[in-house]
């Protein structure tokens, strides 16, 4: 007995009916509905009831055994004191009701009545107009059938040739292809020229080869275990379901560039990355227009973010809420994303009833009053209509919109998985039915739009094409196009540590320094800032000395802006700075109007356009915001992107993006990022969650070698600088080098205003650069003891040395860079101390944290030196929370460093 026969009579009848087209045009007459609503107030309220509640009984679930039987009182005629046989505008009420059912209770169920009046009025009017137009032209229908059939052929081909490979095919969700086809056809009509897509694994290969012009042979090579890039390119590569591309698409109404970003296996992690890259793309398309509006474009947004989600992850992953919450903020908006939830109604083995508490997977979108279009994935034409409506809404209101496409998953979580162990009833239904492409092709055949020969020709020709591609597996060389276009001139990092002149003429520094605190006429700022920020900075710059951390930062960023680079700094409270040190944004006391002085350098036109400085006070989010900034950094090597944590401790809320994007993106996907991650770090007695950026974890994530010398080709840099000049050179180096690497910095707190932690303009002069090792300021070549440290602990050690009178026998060396580990530079430095008997690593952090575990084996293996330890003992938390204990520990670790 087949699975279909096992179903009860009512269920079998339902599935037979399902095969008959659920025609959403259904004789719908917008003119009739509008006229009847105006004629009779009772009908007006009934019509609005269908607009509001129709989705509750809509036929949107392709694997429901029976149609919805939910009782909705507001849809009953008696609720509105109407009878079926009453006549309004020459039509019986029951005919008008059928009109509304056809539009709102068929394969499309809309939620939009929660929006503000202008939006919901537009949405109803536009949707009903589209429905009244009827079905797409025959040629459009045939093209959709062709795309769906090719997707099915592709899955069948892979199943035959690579039967043991997990491909996460699109079977059951093929109407996603109709979504993208309509998206590409209609987006150019709304002014879109660039599309950035973030999506998970399901159906990814179908989309790549079906609509993104990705050569199937590259998929076949990957399935055979071959690399996705030519030999000689350094990197680990990634799995089959994370392949990506960037392509100029042909054959659509206007020029269209589409980027499908690589994704990690951490579901939804790529969504904010896609939005960030979209935002950056708008700056690339027109930097002048971008700089003139806080909202990036001010109306017509030519770059479109498309976020594809799975139902289980969309409802459960917190990064979705964070990303949606940012969507309307001025420095994060992209004029609305189009979301598609590929809702196969199961997460691995967990059904929706165990996967979320809300009625719909899409309910999170109501936090921004976004419209939601539920659509039956069995109906490609309904999906296409929903896509057009979504694009037009986004064009009109510059806001997010979501399509919830209910579909199914033909196999288990992957093709090797048997879902009948855990979901037998669902898969009785799925196995009893035909595929979406076959159903749609049959429908077109039955109506005479597509004949059997045409259908078979599509299948045969695509199967033959895939066969020819299969023959190329051994001979095909995959292209490598990462360093083209905006990335031309950039290369992979060398295997040696290189040095770059990052110094700047003092006249330029004085100019940009003065501009960084220039208050516009008519703006009144806080008197404390006038005295201690504006006047103090001007004095220090003119003197050329006493340059503290915030001024050095302003000089670095201002000089980059002066050279035409763009800068974007983002994080919680970065405008002022967590420690009230930055004041990159000045606030008028009378109006609260914001001014960013560095955006007004006043350069002569012949010098070229200055860069744009975007200072972004982010919402209280780490994961989505850092993901967004990472995506922004992928767009161009000419923008310095900085993310600053409020305290370094809080970066772990963004651990997913740090692990799967920032520190590993280049190795997996050959995509470079020059972003800087600033993590305020230091033991100041502030307790377990305000002391440590977890240096040890970052060092563990590097690919630095214990037994060989590092080069610039490490996966990312990690630094712990101790002077403003070093910070200045690090920021500038990110843009000056001909390659891009992420830089993670244990940035200071106390050192921001430490009287000893200052620099001079001479330290930032041409010919100067960042140095990974800082020698003792005074030669102590006869020292018998050499202390080594990293970060602010140096200043405590230097003070203790002076107080103990140990200036002659103790030298202190600072490791400003920990990765790449400066083995050669350190060996040269240590060689100066011929009388040294002890080498001691000193750190504030506990022994099981900080850099100790990292530097110790490198001293032994690369330098041939034994290294002692002077620091806190092991602890299960980063720092103690008792002030007296903290002070006692501070004294003890200094005593250990100088103990006889």
TrEMBL record:
It comes from the Eukaryota. Its cofactor is thiamine diphosphate. PANTHER family: 2-OXOADIPATE DEHYDROGENASE COMPLEX COMPONENT E1, 2-OXOGLUTARATE DEHYDROGENASE. NCBIfam families: 2oxo_dh_E1, PRK09404.1. It comes from Rhipicephalus pulchellus. This is Putative 2-oxoglutarate dehydrogenase e1 subunit. Residues 547-754 form the Transketolase-like pyrimidine-binding domain. One of its GO terms (molecular function) is oxidoreductase activity, acting on the aldehyde or oxo group of donors, disulfide as acceptor. Keywords: Oxidoreductase, Thiamine pyrophosphate, Transit peptide. SUPFAM superfamilies: Thiamin diphosphate-binding fold (THDP-binding). Belongs to the alpha-ketoglutarate dehydrogenase family. Pfam families: E1_dh, OxoGdeHyase_C, Transket_pyr.
